[in-house]
Amino acid sequence: MLSPNSTFYPRPLGVTPAASLPQSPSAPLETSRQLVGDDQQDAYYFRSLEEAGIKLNGPQISAVRHGRGPILTLAGAGCGKTTVLAARAGYLMEVSGVHAGSILLVTFTNKAAAEMKDRIAALPGIRPAAARAVQARTFHSFALTLLRHYGVQEDIFGEPRAQHTVLKMLLRQHGMSEAFQPESLLAMLSAWKMQGSDTADLPEQSQEERDAKKVLLGYETWKQERGKMDFDDILLRAAALLRDPAVLKPLQRRFQYIMVDEFQDTNRLQYEIVQLLAAAHRNLMVVGDDDQTIYTFNGARQESILEFDKVYPGARIVTLDINYRSDARILGLGSELVARNKRRRDKRLRAAGQRGDAPRFATPANAEEEAAWVVNQICQQVEEGLYTYRDMAILHRTASSSRAVFEQLVLKDVPFVQHGASPVFYDQSLIKPLMDHMRLSLNPRAMDALPSALGPLYVSRDAGLEWIQRCEQEQAKKYPLIHLSKWDKLKPFQQEQVKERIKLIKSLHKLKPIIAVQEMRRQFYDKYMESGDPTIFTHYKETMLETLDEFEAAVKKFETVEEFVQFADELSRRHREMESLRRSQDSDAVQLMTIHRAKGLEFPCVYWIGASEGIVPHSTALRHDIPEDQKAALSVQQTDAELDMALEEERRLAYVAITRAKQHLYVTSPASHHGKPADVSRFLLEAFGMEVPDKRKVREEGQGNNQASYRDHGSRSYSGRDNYSRTGNGNRYEGTREHKKKAGTRYTADSQPANGLMQRPPIQGGTGQRASHVQHDRQRSAMNHKDQREMEMLDERDEDRLSEQRGSGIIRDHKAFSTPGLHPRATQATSTSSPSRSDSNAAAAGVSRAERTETVAVWKCSSASCKAWLRQKPALPSGKVAKKTTSGPPACPLCSGAMIAGTREVPVTNRFGK
């Protein structure tokens, strides 16, 4: 067992010892073996499932047996919904005699669709041909096949970089290069289309709205002229096609039974497609969980589940409430937490999962301490053999909130896979201009840093660089930016701005990094980034400001700009080195991802970081907690009802984070966020029976202060910090504390052959005649290889869009693995867990790695518990004089301890990882 860790405790900070840990009741043990007697007509089907190891519980049996008519299946987290969907498809075929081709099963990702077909194929008695005939598709796959069948031949234009390039071109043509962010424009356009609205009807009340509409209409025209459509167009055009009775009726006859997975994630347009297909027979089964509706910003509608029986009167409602995933105490915490939401269908999950341990909580001082605690705990768990790295996941709310833990993982050589974020925080498009200004302060002729400096000067990068390079050929300058002050294409005030910017750059290296960043933000950067209409791009701006605040928090621990830039460059270099050691998908590595991305996944051990007010719940959902005079200054005014809905979605997000854990759950709540005090998340306190007061009422009564009290249901009052005192090393509990120290809108189309969509199955008991307009036509209905390649990127693209409300930049998965030999236990676990890899391939990979390594001088942390190391700064070429710097080794960037000189074998990479 894991030895006790003094930083994690049985209750969150601020919870009284009298408060008991919520725990879900145990589920009954009866399965189909006891519940379905041998004398029942369908007993043979359930006996065959049992022989295959599939033993269904009572609610699952009820859902599987459902025949005709609408049914809403409420599937709690970890309650076996995929098993139910596959088993019902088998039941329809084996017991009810339904032809396999009459079943349409719709989900959101390629992976889910493929898993569904595999599950159906693995059912006893299901012939391979029947399994292939079941149409298990994504919404986009279904829609695209339909369009292709009816002659739509436009190419798919779905690559985000290409879309951004086109929008940037259009923005330049309209003189709006600095007015809008392409990411935000595309997000706005997508949200509009997913409501089923036409682009021509985009709002145009303000000048900014009119400008945005002009650019977006230009984008639509650009696509039409070149015969292209994006992923949103596929759904929009398919829905329009289905409104034609001549198209719809054959499909209604074709698909007699429709099942929809992850129903809570459907947007208005997807729901309309489902309703049209099911309108004639109403044989519709939807499976979902309203408590996991966390994508409303992308069009998901909780009303789809809450009002299903109103849309379909007489619909059956079955609740899958037996959880096979989590320990009863982990499940109890999640269930008690989400039960505080008012807009939900009432359900209480029962536990049938493997027993683990009770959730553990910690309150580190800030994100840096939080990251150190989490990574140290992970290393300890691996060293003690409790878990392998792949068993553990670190979940965070936003991309920026993973910065500190990312640095700890990289610098301590912990193998990890990062999903859906930029490779390194300091390389993000939002942060890079500030970094490059500091690089220019250290080396004014750092030509690769110049492009980032041109944007904030409102100068075209391409044209500006061309001018600088031309002038440099004639006469080189110490500060190449100065050439812009003589450029006749700039107005006089812009030329003066160039001179002022150079003055600022010259001064930056003399300042502390935190002062340098704040000065850049104050003088020009915040104004530059905040251009555009705040009523349209609020979510993007909130993400942007949050990222910049996180940047300020990151630089506080550094004394000089040179030290900080060297650290950031080292971090990027080390990450590239890890990238060069990439292995197979099943490598032994910690999973680092946002909570949004973790939905649908499960892990033996989960670390949920950032469980503090302002993070979860996010600050955008807490505006009702700010004074009225400050609220009036907000760019977008929201009603109390809208804020309550936003807060409920944040609570659902916390529920999703908790219910990813199987045996162990660790929750950390930093006591400060971006330099400001942060209380433990109200969601955790509520789950323990505490009541969080309405701060508006507290202010009105003149009682508001930083020590806001929480009350439990027994009306006893507890101060948020009255029974605790903090030390620099962690939490110290005093007084009555008796804590014991114990430790893919996800839309996608799959690559399934398209000729099955319009092919009508044989009519039972006779022959039928197909309508002429749905004749099988391979050339028109088959999805070509280009379609497939375009669609393959859709899972990842939309998973990334879902991971943040409105994130910026090109986002992809990144993997990082430890330097060989650093973690013998992890290396051994990885090698033994991948027996399928051939010896020859492994040997070749080993030779490749050996050929690309070099010995470099490094600084190593002298602390035995800290494995951080940094590459020493290379010697300057002869003839160059170094700037005056402090002598001796630097302080460790993780633990601030002393560092000693040493050497290390590292892969050979350049700045671009080649």
Describe this structure in words.
The protein is an alpha/beta fold and 914 residues long. Helices cover 41% and strands 13% of the residues. The strands form eight sheets. Strands 11-16-15-12-14-13-24 form a seven-stranded mixed beta sheet, with helices on both faces. The chain is globular. It starts with 31 loop residues before the first helix and ends in a 7-residue tail after the last strand. The model is unreliable at 1-5, 532-538, 626-636, 703-756, 759-783, 796-851, 876-882 and 909-914 (pLDDT under 50).
Helix content: 40-55%
Average pLDDT level: 78
Distance, first to last CA: 43 Å
Radius of gyration: 29 Å
Shape by Cα distribution = globular
Give the secondary structure arrangement, pairings included:
Layout: H1 32-35, H2 43-51, H3 58-65, E1 71-75, H4 81-94, E2 103-107, H5 110-121, H6 128-133, E3 135-138, H7 139-149, E4 155-156, H8 160-173, H9 182-193, H10 207-225, E5 228-229, H11 231-242, H12 245-254, E6 257-260, H13 268-278, E7 284-288, H14 303-306, H15 308-311, E8 316-320, E9 322-323, H16 328-338, E10 350-351, E11 360-362, H17 367-383, E12 392-396, H18 403-411, E13 416-421, H19 432-442, H20 450-454, H21 461-474, H22 492-508, H23 513-529, H24 538-555, H25 561-580, E14 590-594, H26 595-598, E15 603-608, H27 628-631, H28 640-658, E16 661-668, E17 672-673, E18 676-677, H29 682-687, E19 690-691, H30 695-700, E20 709-712, E21 717-719, E22 724-727, E23 730-733, H31 778-781, H32 785-792, H33 794-802, E24 812-816, H34 824-833, H35 839-851, E25 853-861, E26 869-871, E27 899-907
Parallel strand pairs: 1-7, 1-8, 2-3, 2-6, 4-5, 6-7, 9-10, 11-16, 12-14, 12-15, 13-14, 15-16
Antiparallel strand pairs: 13-24, 17-18, 19-20, 20-21, 22-23, 25-26, 25-27
Helix pairs in contact: 3-4, 4-5, 7-11, 8-9, 8-10, 11-13, 16-28, 17-18, 19-22, 23-24
